[in-house]
Prior knowledge:
The protein is of the alpha+beta class.
Amino acid sequence: xxxxxxxxxxxxxxxxxxxxxxxxxxxxxxxxxxxxxxxxxxxxxxxxxxxxxxxxxxxxxxxxxxxxxxxxxxxxxxxxxxxxxxxxxxxxxxxxxxxxxxxxxxxxxxxxxxxxxxxxxxxxxxxxxxxxxxxxxxxxxxxxxxx
Length: 147
């Protein structure tokens, strides 16, 4: 028996556009094996294909047990309505070239007008000038008796 339709892959598992799931019956992973089987024959998602096999089950799921598959080269002969319904492709329109930039004066970097906040300091007494500070740090000598 043969079936013809548009194949779609979902998680590597193929099915036809009428909902028929394709399987390699007798395999441990029949649906994944069918996906690999079809890809090895150059069949990709969206291709119109003809599969040969028998109706059956894979586990408890109804499937079409595939023994052979091929791409349909002239899909218009199989489904003429499918090609008529497809919208025509738009022709590519070349983009206009961007206007050339003119060489001009290079702008000087802008300086930001920043206000500098004064540093807050602890309330400390003002320091005496260096000369007076040195004199005040010397130890006073006790006065000699008798003089």
